[in-house]
Each structure stands twice: as structure tokens, then as C-alpha cells.
Design a protein that fits this description.
Blueprint lengths: L1 E6 L7 H17 L1 E6 H4 L24 H9 L3 E7 L7 H9 L4 E8 L2 E6 L6 E7 L6 H18 L3 E6 L10 H4 L2
Parallel strand pairs: 1-2, 1-3, 3-6, 6-7
Antiparallel strand pairs: 4-5
Length: 183
């Protein structure tokens, strides 16, 4: 199984998050083909909403900053793991930045799913999704519930099944397998 990990740490994150993610990466590399992208280290730009990826150069982002490698890895993965510390009750701006840019993997055309408008698929298959969050001071289950709801919406539009949203300290490699990942 191929796993792509998008690390949304920012420059102000604690070493606890980095240590926990490094341990997860080490465990996963023993069992799976893993690619990890540390968004903060890549100096990626924000989506400008130019729609070039839909109309001018379908499936290709007009911003040339290295994100194309992420897009290719994500669409060729069986599982996409999004990891981020909680910042002001949500994921980091680094992770949100690349999440917005994943729109390149969808068509601009709309279809109805459960009575709602969502983008059509550009590709035949999309990876299942998981989200790992590191608590910030004051994080609670309400923050987790709100964030989980937002990722349910993201996964629906992305055509990938959301398998879990959990705190990073609750990660257990034994609980993650092909069945859990939906592969």
C-alpha cells in the first residue's frame, strides 16, 4: 500500500508533535511505501483561485513551487494521511494551504451527491483519508468534533473515504492496516 503523508507543522510547533510524527513515520515505513511532504519546508504558495488548473492547463497548477510532486503522490496513493497541530481550533495554515491546492485533482464540473453540489472526479480513484491532530493548549473534544465535521466535508468533495480523525497521541500502528485504510 502506498501512503502519502502531508505534514502541516508550522515553524512554531512543539517538538512533541515532531517527535510523535517521526515515530509514526518510522512505524509506517516498516510496513508501507510512504512518501512524506513537510509543507512548511517546501515554501508552497497559496491557491490564487485563478482556475487555470481547470480551464487553461487542466489538471496542472499554474503555480510552479513543487506542489506538483504532492499532487502526483496523492493521486497515486492508496491512503492520504493529513497531520497537523491544532492552531486556534483547526489545522495549521500550512496544511490548509495544500488542501486548497488539491482542487487541481478535481474537475470544475459539478455533480449532485446526497442532494449537494460537489466536483466531479478527474481520476478514476482517490485515496482514503486519515487525519492526525496534535492538541494545543485548551483543545477539547468539541474542537475535535468540529474539525472532524470539516474533514468529512473535505473527503466528500475529494471523493476519498475519511477513515479516521484522531489525536496524534492516540495513534497505534497495529490499528492501522489495509482494511482500516480502506485499501
Amino acid at each position: 500500500m502506498k501512503v502519502t503523508i502531508l505534514d502541516g507543522r508550522s515553524s512554531v510547533d512543539s517538538s512533541d508533535y515532531e517527535r510523535q510524527l517521526a515515530a509514526i513515520l518510522s512505524d509506517m515505513q516498516k510496513h508501507y511505501d510512504v512518501e512524506i511532504y513537510s509543507i512548511n519546508d517546501m515554501n508552497l504558495k497559496y491557491c490564487t483561485g485563478c482556475w487555470s488548473c481547470w480551464w487553461k492547463t487542466p489538471g496542472e497548477c499554474s503555480i510552479k513551487d513543487g506542489a506538483d510532486a504532492i499532487f502526483k503522490s496523492v493521486i497515486h496513493s492508496d491512503f492520504l494521511l493529513l497531520a497537523s497541530p491544532m492552531i486556534a481550533g483547526f489545522v495549521s495554515s500550512e496544511l490548509k494551504k495544500i488542501m486548497d491546492r488539491l482542487i487541481v485533482l478535481l474537475h470544475p464540473y459539478i455533480q449532485m451527491i446526497n442532494g449537494e453540489s460537489h466536483h466531479n472526479k478527474r481520476y478514476d480513484s482517490y485515496p482514503s483519508l486519515g487525519v492526525l491532530l496534535a492538541r494545543e493548549a485548551g483543545s477539547d473534544e468539541e474542537d475535535m468534533k468540529i474539525t472532524e465535521g470539516l474533514f468529512k466535508r473535505f473527503s466528500l468533495n475529494f471523493h476519498g473515504e475519511l477513515k479516521f480523525v484522531r489525536w496524534i497521541e492516540d495513534w497505534n500502528i497495529e490499528g492501522f492496516d489495509n482494511e482500516t485504510a480502506g485499501c
